[in-house]
Amino acid sequence: MKQQIRLQKVLAQAGVASRRRAERMIAEGRVSINGQVVTSMGVQIEPHVDRIEVDNKPLNLTFGTPLPVTLLLHKPSGVMCTASDPDGRKTVFDLLDAGLPRLFSIGRLDYGSEGALLLTNDGELAHAMMHPKFKIPKTYEVRVKGRLDAHHFAAFEQGMLIDGKPTLPVQITEMETTGKNGWYRIVLSEGRNRQIRKMMEQLGFLVARLRRTSIGNIELGNLRPGAYRTLTSTEVQELLRSAANQDTSRVGLAGSISPTQQSNRKIAARSRDNGRKNSDQRQIKHR
User: Fold this and answer.
1) Considering the domain boundaries, does residue 189 fall inside one?
2) Is residue 206 part of a domain?
3) Is 110 a catalytic residue?
4) Tens-digit pLDDT profile for residues 3-53
């Protein structure tokens, strides 16, 4: 029997984009199969038979290679997270050595922010990390001009209205103060655009520096700006387990299992399967 795979999964496995981003690309009419544009999420293909084009460029499907690779990069300030920039600014992909497979970022940090950023060609991992139902905690160290008081702390912890939508509760603790500036440790469980900066601005504070120090169990540690390292198989498995454990969906009536929980079970099963394997991972030179 010929193997058929959903189009968005093929795009993710081929390293084009995360599964969520691949779905948006399909909906935008940027993907064609055998010369015909498709916009449906239910399309299945035979990877080694059907011809796929993305943005009118043929997609070379080489399943089995390259191996899944996930990097932890210390993004410097003043570097874009996009694959290219129309203004010619440096991107995180300019920091990578030649010879790596095509990678995409799991989430983003804005141009002026720095710190931990994950790059991968693993579509399943990207889906688990980026989908809103998975509340992977991310920790930031933030320096602001001014000092926050108990009222400001309560606003973070209770949630605020940002861009017309309430935020989830945010953990915030004071680290130190230097003159009129304060350093704060903030833990987010959602990935909204410029969330910390917008929350601070709403309270009347300007962010002077923002650095992400961890994503789930992955710590930035002593990795210098512009450098990166390969995640171990154990670290990837822990991220997958964390994603499955952080899902906030509920069991339906009469004990039925929601589609979200079915997705979780697949993620957890993959994590268990990976734990049984003793496969070697390619080592990538540290910068």
Assistant:
1) yes
2) yes
3) yes
4) 578 888 888 777 777 778 888 889 999 999 988 999 988 888 877 678 888
